[in-house]
From TrEMBL:
Domain of life according to the entry: Bacteria
Lineage: Bacteria, Bacillati, Actinomycetota, Actinomycetes, Micromonosporales
Stated name of the protein: Muconolactone delta-isomerase
Keywords: Isomerase
Domain Muconolactone isomerase: residue ranges: 4-95
UniProt key word Cell inner membrane: no
InterPro entries on file: Dimeric_a/b-barrel, MLI_dom
Entry GO MF terms: isomerase activity
Length: 97
């Protein structure tokens, strides 16, 4: 894996979706996130400050390039309810890492 990507993920649950359906989707998403982390694709997740009713997550992903990242994001169950904004990251000359 070579490139890191910052991804803002905004989820909008369709009207009429039951609480049970949301819970099941979240469970599937959690399991897939664990798999992606084990594979080295999902590096970190953050919960930014949220407005009431907002469902948004920031993630740091690693992939060989944009095509692989798209495959990774598409494999996540919540993607059907989600809009992703992807920002490729490059190292800063003063990065202590």
């Amino acid at each position: 894996m070579g490139v890191e990507f910052f991804v803002e993920m905004v989820t909008t649950v369709p009207p009429g979706t039951s609480d049970d359906e949301v819970a099941e989707m979240r469970a599937r998403e959690s399991a897939r996130a664990a798999e992606l982390a084990a594979q080295g694709h999902l590096r970190r997740l953050w919960r930014p400050p949220l407005k009431p009713g907002e469902w948004r997550t920031w993630g740091l992903f690693s992939a060989a390039g944009p095509d692989e990242l798209e495959a990774v994001l598409a494999s996540m169950p919540l993607r059907v309810w989600r809009h992703d904004t992807v920002t490729p990251l490059t190292p800063h000359p003063s990065d202590p890492g």
